[in-house]
Amino acid sequence: MESYWICPLLVLRQYRLRQFISATQGLAQCEFAYNGDNYKKKVHEISNT
Length: 49
Prior knowledge:
Layout: E1 4-5, H1 8-16, E2 32-33, H2 39-48
Antiparallel strand pairs: 1-2
């Protein structure tokens, strides 16, 4: 069974920059499987942008 995670890191980053947008905007682009290849790398890249 695949589990999907919606990126709260992007929302937190935008909130810190005072550019917060609704949590439902762009969710389709934020999904990736935790059990896929290199998911830790993807999380690291997202958190560092």
